[in-house]
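Lecture 7 notes. Example A: sequence first, then its structure tokens.
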Amino acid sequence: MEQLKSRHLNRMRTVNLDFVRGMMNTINWNDRLIMIKGQRGVGKTTLMLQRILEQFGPTDTSTVLYISLDNIYFATHRLLDFIEQFHKMGGKNLFIDEVHKYEGWSREVKNAYDEFTDLKLVLSGSSLINMMEGEADLSRRCISYEMQGLSFREYIAMFHHHKFDPITLDDVLTHGNDLCHEVNVIMRPLALFQQYLKQGYYPFLIEGAESYYTRIENVVNITIESELPQMRRLDVGNIRKIQALLVTLSSGLPYILDTTKLSSLSGIARTTLLQYLQYLHESRLINLLYSDMSTVKRMQKPDKIYIENTNLLHTLSVSVNTGTEREVFFVNQLSMSHQIEYSKTAADFTIDHTFTIEVGGPSKGNKQLAGVTNGYIAADDEEYTIGNKIPLWLFGFLY
């Protein structure tokens, strides 16, 4: 216990509140069991430590403690025994990181939740599939949140120190020029937007631009080489094929799925290919889009495939297609809070069954929106909203 308290204090010495993710205000910290899941490198650990600093200060280890289950201590000690000891000593708030590194974590957390009713637990882990399965075990007990990488708004705040409040999609579509004016008075967004698309989604940019893409490669490789074989019984003989599949999906135009062609290109049987695409979607390496989310069934062929974010796209692709980059950004920024469907019209996307949006460059016209109500253009290289043409970067202020 004393060793873990010492590690907690060492961690807290490096934490500050200069920049805090918007998710801090989204989470209801009063809930007894909270799960924060997300891709490796998006900032889950930092958020937990900042919450401790903000609420309890840097030196309190009697009522609050941060632990990581990849600590060698838990190779020889049961998590449930530790939680019981912490509770007996007056502990009220336990932040448990890297839960996926501890076998059977969800069962022991469930027992602790049921037994120690005055104890609050916050969990985090980077294996999204492992966390999803644990979340099912903790159903009716756990409130779950998924953390994305930095939005364009958060990137500006973290690395360029200009702070703006997040806005809603309705604000973007109806009052976008108010924010456009506010932003353009302070800074010119287009140059920073191009930087963000290449190196801005993952907070570990703070560790240095030189190693940025290497870190993203590590995220991809850990997911494919370790997580999927362990959690989804991925045939290790197909690991190289999966890596090649991601490179294929990152090349050229947004990928409209032809399973026969993609199966031939990847050397993976069609049924197995559809399974693997689902695994990659669960791991947040790709986004799968369907034309009608209300009728989607397991193993149904998706209508379109996107790499999950633009920084990952730049990591995987030798030459990034500008049209692909624009659409990947748009899907990524809206995917957590809104339902995005591959539009049945000539336009690109339908949002929340209500809005139709075409993504393109500054010269994009309304041809694809003919006969469509609530139709908009998300246009690159624009500073202000003009009619129904909205700057693409403005959709990066939604969280």
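Example B, a different protein, same format:
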Amino acid sequence: MFDGKRVFDYHRCRSCDLIYQHPMPSGEEISGFYPDSYSIYSEPAQPWFPPRALRTLRDKLGYRHLEVKGSALKMLLPGKAVPEVAPFIPGGRALDIGCGNGEFLLRLHSIGWECQGVEFNDKAVGICRSHGLQVFHGDLKSAGFEAGTFDFVTANHLIEHVPDPHELMREIARITRPGGRVLIRTPNSQALGRNWFGRYWFANEVPRHLMLYSRPNLQMLAARHGLEAETVFTPVKPKILLRSLDYVLGNRSKPSEKRKLRKWLARLYIPAAKVTGRGDELFAMLVKR
């Protein structure tokens, strides 16, 4: 359902298990799913990495140039994992496709990457440019980047919004240099939460999500375009479960994310999803061989 007024149908491919919207909406319809009020089109909230993440980047991923500051207590805590960032490359060039308000690009720039973005929303492009980011207004193919331009290409929660994933992956592979990395993040169609909640699973995000991927079919898609999986895992997000619960209950008052008992119970979901390998998100770091 979308605004409770229209029904959208999804089918499952018997061959690869891909879940896809059918009939596929037109380009004009898809554009209408993204009003300027869409949350990612607001001002960046945290355009930097916290100290514990900076320590990990410096000590484990080659960002030796970073200066890490923080309280003595924070310095005693272990570093925070930063799987969404590729190892440092001096003078490395990064591209974020569907960069929204540019927050992730600003983070990458803050640690030494030369950054560019691609974004189709007018408001988001304006926000990015107001922060000094170089962002192409349009789609990836229209940007016309030269082959092998980038060392690190990211598509954070983008591929599920794209009606032709092969065209997208083909272009991503073309503009990534050999040995370069590609980050894909997208909802996991095999998530335990989706099994529990079905149509009420929050990350379905009907109708914006045109396709939902599983680990096998995402890796299959990447491999067809010369991108090999380096790391693939399924993070767990209790907020997805809590928001799904609000859908089931029809809750329009205080959200479950702000109810202590429900938040505590949602934590029980974390080990269940981790043990089964069925977290809510697919996280894939790919390499162009």
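Note on Example B: The beta strands are 10-12, 19-21, 93-97, 114-119, 134-137, 150-156, 176-187, 211-212, 227-233, 281-288. The longest helix spans residues 238-249.
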